Amino acid sequence: MTIYDGLSLFTALLSGIMAGGLYFFVMWKSINRYQKDNKLNFFVFSFFLRLIFLLSFLYFFANNQAVKYLIFMGGFFLSKFIAVRVSRKMGEA
Predict the structure, then answer these.
(1) Residue 1 above 70 pLDDT?
(2) First to last CA, the chain
(3) What secondary structure letter does DSSP report for 57?
């Protein structure tokens, strides 16, 4: 493994964390908006927009390499874990 490979995998991990953070932030905002307005069409539109964003981000940073896909998804699940922890802390406060 060269330095370029390590940097490339680190970039995939960071992009997974960033994509996951943005994905869950937008999901949190759309859930809060849905609770206020009760408009299901916005919630469905938000879901498809988040899905398109996530898949395009994954395609752009993984470059058709299985290891990068796994690292990206690991970063995504790490951001999910962080989002759950933060939301639980916000619920306790």
Answers:
(1) no
(2) 46
(3) H
Instruction: Give the Cα-Cα-Cα angle 15, 76, 34 (nearest 5 degrees).
Output: 110
Using CA atoms, how far apart are residues 10 and 40, in angstroms rounded to an integer? 38
Helix, strand, coil shares of the chain, percent, nearest 5, are 90, 0, 10
Buried b (16+ CB within 10 A) or exposed e, 59-88: eebbeeeeebbebbbebbeebeeebeeeee
- Mean of the pLDDT values across residues 36-47? 82
Tokens of 8: 């490339």
CA dist., res. 38 & res. 82, Å (int) = 28
The 8-class DSSP code of residue 63 comes to T
Tokens of residue 41, six digits: 């069409």
The pTM of the full predicted model, rounded to 2 decimals, is 0.82
List, for residues 46-76, the tens digit of each pLDDT value: 889 999 998 888 888 777 888 889 999 999 9
